[in-house]
Specification:
7-stranded mixed β-sheet, 4-stranded antiparallel β-sheet, mainly beta
Length: about 120
């Protein structure tokens, strides 16, 4: 049974930091690229970061470039999203997702497996 489980969401102040984790099971994790997406109320789901299956390359959307960093541990079957310099507009439900292959994509249609999401709220 394929599972992606996000954790680490919560409330942060503007300018603060949060670290999201995504724990994978039920598939050969090291063969899959991982993406991070977010969706705010009334908005489309947005791809914000991705990392290749080996972790050798990453890519970020303009909205988070320089503030967010994704990494992975293929021994622990985990992916991380370090979020710094948070802004109120970063508030959303954050999802991790996986697709087979060594490439990068921020397109939702590329992804096969999805987590259930974790809420991030940035507010003073």
């Amino acid at each position: 049974q394929v599972q992606l489980v996000e954790s680490g969401g919560g409330l942060a102040q503007p300018g603060g930091s949060l670290r999201l984790s995504c724990t994978a099971s039920g598939f050969t994790f090291g063969d899959y690229a991982i993406g991070w997406f977010r969706q705010a109320p009334g908005k489309e789901r947005e791809g914000i970061a991705c990392i290749t299956s080996t972790g050798s390359k990453t890519y970020y959307s303009d909205s988070v470039e320089g503030r967010f960093t994704t990494s992975r541990d293929n021994v622990k079957n985990m992916v991380y999203l370090q979020m710094d310099s948070l802004k109120p507009e970063d508030s959303a439900v954050y999802y991790c997702a996986a697709f087979w292959g060594e490439r990068l994509s921020l397109y939702t249609g590329s992804y096969e497996y999805w987590g259930q999401g974790t809420q991030v709220t940035v507010s003073s």
